[in-house]
Amino acid sequence: MPATPKGRITTRDHLEEHYGQPKGHLSRKELPKLNDHSKHFISLSPFLVLSTSAANDGRADASPRGDAPGFVRVLDDTTIAIPDRPGNRRTDSFHNVMENPEVGLMLMVPGMNEILRINGRARLTTDPALLATLEAKGKPPRAALVVDIRDVYMHCGKAIIRADLWNPDVQIDRKDFPTLGQVNQDWYGVDGKAIDARIADEYVNKLY
To answer: Are residues 143 and 46 in the same domain?
Structure first.
């Protein structure tokens, strides 16, 4: 069955006809729990992207999370905990989790092209005993997102290679893009210099 006249792919049949089927074991590459390799990867990872979506309107959100390598704690073979460090208090991801606990994670390790992907169901907790195990700089997180894993797998490194993401020689000159304060001033009409000053202080003194 061909795609629509405008080239849109609108059904699974269209999609599978256009791309074909995964080869070999790739059609069943997800594992239902962590193994030694995925646990090792988590211990090395300082950064992840958390994807959520709302139940009422399906609105999606992707949010970065980062800290020292191993900040994500493995509780057991099917459960991990992600500390919530100080941020902007919008809590968009957590609002979504309240409605729809399904989440997707992409964990990354600088210098590695492959990505660890985890899908599962999340719940927010303020359990003091768990938060104490997630302390950083002597401070516990305000909350933790506990993810009950449904599947986990390694994603190949083609996207990272194409992006040349870890190559320091391709980093832009920071002057080539406005500061966050200037961006906020242009978008919202606020005082950009005051925002830049506040952010500079928070980057030094209020990360935890």
So the answer is: yes
**Does 36 lie in the same domain as 7?**
no
How far apart CA 49 and CA 61 sit, in angstroms, is 10
What's the pLDDT tens digit per position in 64-74? 999 999 999 99
Which residues span the domain enclosing 16? 1-25
Give the per-residue pLDDT at 24: 60
Domain count, the chain: 3
Q: What is the pTM of this model?
A: 0.90
H helices of 5-153, in order, are: 12-19, 36-44, 92-99, 128-133
Same domain, 98 and 142: yes
Q: Counting Cβ atoms within 10 Å, is residue 161 exposed (0-12), middle (13-18) or buried (19+)?
A: exposed
C-alpha torsion angle, residues 49, 54, 57, 62 (rounded to 10): -10
Strands 143-155, 115-125: pairing is antiparallel
